[in-house]
Each structure stands twice: as structure tokens, then as C-alpha cells.
Amino acid sequence: MSEHLVVIGADATGMSAASQARRRRGPEQLRITAFERGGFSSYSACGIPYWVGGEVAERDALVARTPEEHRSRGIDLRMGTEVTEIDLDRGRVRTRELDGGAEAWTGFDQLVVATGAEPIRPSLPGFDAPGVHGVQTLDDGAELLATLERDCHRAVVVGGGYIGVEMAEAMVRRGLQVTLVLRSAEPMPTLDPDMGKLVRVAMEGMGIEVVPGAEALEVLLGPDGRPREVATTAGQYPADVVVLGLGVRPRTGLARQAGLPLGASGGLRTTPEMRVSGVDGVWAGGDCVEVLNLVSGGYQNIALGTHANKHGLVIGTNIGGGRATFPGVVGTAVSKVCSLEIARTGLGEREATAAGAAWESAVIESTSRAGYYPGAALMTVKMIAERDSGRLLGVQIVGREGAAKRVDVAAVALTAGMTVDQVVSLDLGYAPPFSPVWDPVLVAARKLAGRVG
Amino acid sequence: MSEHLVVIGADATGMSAASQARRRRGPEQLRITAFERGGFSSYSACGIPYWVGGEVAERDALVARTPEEHRSRGIDLRMGTEVTEIDLDRGRVRTRELDGGAEAWTGFDQLVVATGAEPIRPSLPGFDAPGVHGVQTLDDGAELLATLERDCHRAVVVGGGYIGVEMAEAMVRRGLQVTLVLRSAEPMPTLDPDMGKLVRVAMEGMGIEVVPGAEALEVLLGPDGRPREVATTAGQYPADVVVLGLGVRPRTGLARQAGLPLGASGGLRTTPEMRVSGVDGVWAGGDCVEVLNLVSGGYQNIALGTHANKHGLVIGTNIGGGRATFPGVVGTAVSKVCSLEIARTGLGEREATAAGAAWESAVIESTSRAGYYPGAALMTVKMIAERDSGRLLGVQIVGREGAAKRVDVAAVALTAGMTVDQVVSLDLGYAPPFSPVWDPVLVAARKLAGRVG
């Protein structure tokens, strides 16, 4: 008698888990059913800003694997079907077809909760009007593009994090005049303010109006019921379209009802095997769980496709009879706004203080290639380390071509628990077209090494 | 009474050491004299191929710091002055001015041997003719450029390593028809042959004629005493100019005469502090020493500016009263030929076997950005790991934009002694313009993880 695996949510975690379990166990051993309430499977939400911005021409390019492809691999994927209840005692889920409303119970031996995240949408007047758009799903993207087909000249983007900054770029690329309204003092609040300031100055240089320290209060509508202006604590800004980039929170309503354990971050608690803590046969991963930060030792919720895919691989391997773990994250994130690249990993100053560390930091400017080599582009690198031990705590990079992915060096060094002295000695690739003789990350480590240990 | 530091060789190691010692100790505490037999200080030999190729317009762009700049910082730099003998017993060096021949003895308390490397030049007929060029010094570069001003149409480059491949590109950029003659089966013998083959195929696609498995025998000269043809074991190839890229060996004649200890690699043996082993007050670094390979545990000589600079920093710190060490290398190297990027770190298959490891390898193809993002470029990643432990042993990457510096992730992971399972879990930067959701290095680790441990 074969086991039955039920998956809730058919994006990165859910379908990676299903696919990996299927690779390891054939249909005669493992039956797999996946429920997805939306209309797409395995798509790249991270790609939506580039589709809206026009770099990616077709929505379907963002779909890594269609429902048909999954089905051809022996996964019974039910689209447009919402799971409305998890019954742990009887090992079953209740589903409802969005088209028609038919309800049913489905039993499971193993369950994967991959319900993802939901965008934060303020309950303020006007924010539910047509012309006010989130960018969480492919349908969101299509609706925003439909709005842009209208006579749009001015966009207000609300929120200064990754999505806000990327959507500001997308609106610029669409030829709109853009205002970015953000609560924090500088864009990219996951950077320290001195590094965020570099992002603001660059964005202003691109013609984007940046309004920091402002709360949106209301979307004022025109006679057509569409945005006319956004009222904020810092003033009113005309808008034909409003884009929300206020971040997301884990979608855990189902899990909460079922009594599954949630952490302080709001995400599901799991073991390193991505099993829901204390619950046999139930697994969770992706945007709806919390993960260990290997640098701070704390738990946090991070909505990022790369983690979601790794979680799915770990879950699928374990369900498939193998053994895999997800040890945690170091908080790496990269982004860009037009030609400005932005990266961070580990802890920023505020996070380092919150983690109880006494720290020092250093900021340097260097180039992506040897200074004399054509195309050498400036970047600013900030490095933070523990004062006494010299242990690396975090790195932030803002610059042009070649800046963002340099943060990977620091991500690996953080994972290994290296000191800045050890970073100075790293044998990184050097040739004039690729790096100065001292890579910018090493230059920062050299400077910081003189202040710690 | 102040100490006297004498430095032999005014390039990366020598002048980094002098500058760092000067930063830590003023002229009243430390007198610094540096002898350089050539005409340039602190220049980038690695940049010569790009100057010859025309990407770098001016020779002087390759000079990081001129003799005058060093002198203004309190370093008595004597150009055109060769050290002809080290007298360890009496703590002095004998010098000879190349212009005039005046000889003198100079006493030292501390000595830095930074004599660099010398190019390998076969003692075969015709190889000392005008029109046959090494590319080790700025003078070499100027002479090659002077030859190219003549009526040159065909170049033969002898040697298939970094210099050979980079000089082949430079000749292509100068509009010449290029033949690359190499001893090994594929270019870039520091890569495994399957990866070197990708380089050959790409070079052939650029119109470069690649002649593998061939020894150069003679440069046949025309009536003007300049190259007409290169005779090899694989046939004869017309040439108006011949470029030698046969590698270098440590320049240790002086050190050998003085009885300083040399390793099997031919380089000077040093402690991690870069003190010459067993000899107080004498330091050495750069292309004339051997370094510990942290992966194999063996010693090797590596002529690379990035190591030379680090050695100089370590030496200068220690002479200046601080404490620094150079722990070793992992064998990272990056290069390119036109738009093809080439990188390696750690051990190749042959080196892994020589180090006594039982290993497995995996090769994957992926892209530099999300597949749907414009500019996503193909790369091939090969990863090697120890069969039983799963410990990472080496990575090689050949591809287009964004390929080379990805090797840094592996370099740090090798330094930390990570397993491929640990590599799979690394929290690398992900956003569609910068990486697929699984970075290519992680894709290789995923594939290899299934074969080891």
C-alpha cells in the first residue's frame, strides 16, 4: 500500500518538495497530490518587477514548470483548489474548488505546508481601489500592466524595501515619473542608514523623488474611482497608479487553526529537517516558516525564493527516504535599482547591537576591476565585526556592475565563522578584468582588521 | 639608533612591505632602502596583456606608484641598481648601478627578498631574435608594441597557460591572425582537460588556430633577422611576431648563492610570517617563494600579484612591530580570453589524485542570471570532492559574463574546509538579475552531493 503525500501550495517549496520526493520514490511507493488555490505553479514572484518593467517580455517566462509538466511527472496537481482546513487528528485536509465551491476531504500520510506569504496591505481609505497594486502574484503583475496601459504618467510606490525599490525601477523603465514613499529614513532599511543613503542619492540621480520618513495615509481617488493622489504624513503626491511594496508576512492562518507551532516572527517553527516542530509527518518551508540566523542565533521569517527552493529540496529528500537538513541563513540579499547594485549579508549595526555584540565597522570605496581596466566601476563596502574576537558579523555593498554578488564571499565567510584577519587572507580570484589586486571585500577587511581583535 | 630595512625588488611584495613598515614606523625609527634593477616600481605585470591588446591606453596606467611617490613617503628607492650578492654573515648586500657599474656594499638589519620570477625562455634557435617577445616587464610590453607597429599580420603565441591565452586575445584585438602552440592537450593546463576543451572550442570560434600537443622547435627567421615561421613538432606556422607565454620560475639566484633555503618548487621557504625559514631578519614573498596549498597540504610556487601584495603587507606589518601571517592559498586563478571567462580553485582531478584523495566530480551547465532575465549567460561548473567525506576539493568554471568571480565562493568554502552538503546550503545572493534561484555553484554541489559521502 503506497503512502500519500499532500502538498499545500504549488510554488517553490511545495513543488520542489513534490518533485524531489518523486525523484526518489516512484508512484507505486508514493502518491502525491498538491493543492494550489491560484492559477500558476512554480513561478518566480521575484521576477515580477522585471516583467512589469519590460525586461522580461512574457508572463510565461516566469513559470519554471507548468501544472501539465508537474502532472506528467506523476504529481496530481489540483489548481484553483484551496485547502480550508488541516485536520491533524484524522490526517486529512479539507479542500474547496474556487470554481464551483465543491468541498472534499483528502487523507494524507505526509503533509507539506507551503502556504507562502501574504502582502501587507494597509486598511486605509483608497488602498483597495483599482489602480492600487500589490506585486505578489502573476495575476497582480497582469493587473498592474493593465493599469499601465491606461493614461498613466505618475506612479507613487509605497515602501522602501526590495520590492519598493525594484518597482520604482520598473515604473521608471515604463516612462513614468516616480515618487517613492517610505517610512524609514533611507531606502533599503535592511542596510545601515549610511549605506541606504547611497541608494537614495542614486535613485534621486535617476529622477526618482524619494520621500523618507513618511507614512501613507490615504489614496485619494478621482471621479473614475482610480488614484489621483497619495496623501502622506509628508504631503500629497499625485499618482495615476499606486504600487505597494510594504513587505509580506507568513501566511499561516491554516497552520494556526490546526494548532501548528508558530515562532515570534510569525512563521512556522521547524526542525533542521524542515519537519514542523513536534509534529510527525508534517513538513513546512518557504515564506511561511521561520529560519535560524546563523550569525545572530535568532529566528526570523525571510520571504526569498532561494530559501524556499532549498526547503523544498530538503523536505522532498527526507520524505523520499534520504536525509537532508537546512542549517539556516546568514541573511544574504541582493537587489538593484537600474544600474545600482545593492547587497547585504549578516548583521547590520542595529542587528549586531540587538544580538548583544560589541562591534566595530569600516567603510571603504574600491572598484570592480583593476582601476586601469575599462569598465572599472565604483563600489562602497561596509564591514562589521565583533570588537574583541574580530569575528565577521556582516557586510553591505552598494555600487555599480560587479558589486552585488561580491557579497557571496562574505556570506560564505560568515557561515564558516571567520574573523576579519582570515578574510584578509582569502585567496580570491584576481585578474585585472575581474578585480583590483586587493578585492574590495578584502580592502574592507584590511581596514577593519586594524580596529578589532 | 634606527634600524635599516633593505628591500631587493621594487614591485608588489617589496614596495608593499616597505610602505606598510613605513606606515607603522617613522623614518626616525626605521630607515628603508629599496633596490630595483629595472626602471619601474609597483607596476601591474598582470595588466601587460591588456595594454598590448589596447584596452589600457597608457603604460603609466599600470604603474600603481612611481619611484617619486615612494620617495616622498620616506623610502630611499634606488632604481637601475642591481643587488649582486647577499652577505648574510655581515648583514650587507652588494649593489651595482646598471648605468655606470658603480659597486657598493649596504648594511641591513632587516632584509626583504622580493626578486620575483623570471620568464622561461627556451634555448632553441631563433628564440632570442628581435620580434620574439616575453611579456614579463613593462619594457617587454613596450618592445612588443614596437614590433606590432611594423607590418605584422600573423602572430604565433607559444604556451597555453594564462599568459598565452591572454596574449592570444591581445593579438586578436590588434587585428592579427593568431596561432596558439601549446604542449598540453588543451589550453589552460591548470584546468582539467574536459574544461580546457571548452576554452579551446571557444578560442577556435574566435578564429584563433589552436595547436595542442606541440613543442616549439625553432623560430625561423627572414632575411631581416625577424620571425618568418615557427617550427613545431606539429608543423610550421607563419609568424611575423612570436609571443612567449611559457610561464615563469622563481628568480632565486641571489638567494641560492647566499644559502637561503629553497623548496622543491624552486621557491624560497618561509614561515607563515613570511620570514625566510631559519634565518632571522630576512623576509621573502611574492613570485620568488613557495606557499602552502591549504587543500593539498603541499607547497607550490605561484606567480600572482594578489599573493605578492598580501606577502608584502604581512612582511611590512611584522617588520613594523605588528603580527601578521599568510596562512596559504587554495589555488584560485581567474582569466579570460575575449568574452570567455575562466576560473579555477583548489585541486583538479590530477592534483586530487596526486594528493592521495579518492574523489568524485560533477559537471553542470547553468546561467549567470535567472534564465528569463536578459543577459543570462551560460557557464559550465565542475566540482570535485573527496568521495567518503564529501569535503570540497576544487571547482572550475568556464563561461561568459559572471562566470569567473563565482569561483570565489568555492575559494572561501575550500579555506573553511566545507563539504559539498555545506556548500548546497550556502546562503548566496539571489535576485533574477544576478543569479538563478539556485546559483550555478550550488547546482554543481547538488549534483555532486548525490555522489559522495
State the largest interface: A-B, 68 and 67 residues
| Helix residue percentage of chain A | 10-25%
Number of helices of chain A: 12
Q: Main β-sheet of chain A: number of strands, strand sense, barrel status?
A: 5 strands, parallel
Query: What number is the mean pLDDT of chain A?
Result: 97
Assign an overall shape of chain A.
Answer: globular
Structural class of chain A: alpha/beta
Judging by the overall fold, what is the CATH architecture of the largest domain in chain A?
A: 3-Layer(bba) Sandwich
Side by side, the strands of the main sheet of chain A go 3-2-1-7-18
Q: What's the domain count of chain A?
A: 3
What is the CATH third-level topology name of the largest domain in chain A? Answer: FAD/NAD(P)-binding domain
User: What Rg of chain A do the Cα atoms give?
Assistant: 23 Å
Write out the CATH superfamily name of the largest domain in chain A.
FAD/NAD(P)-binding domain
Query: Strand share of the residues of chain A?
Result: 25-35%
How many distinct beta strands of chain A? 25
Spans of chain A of at least 5 consecutive residues whose pLDDT stays below 50 are none
Oligomerization category of the chains in this entry: homodimer
CATH class of the largest domain in chain A: Alpha Beta
- The end-to-end span of chain A amounts to 61 Å
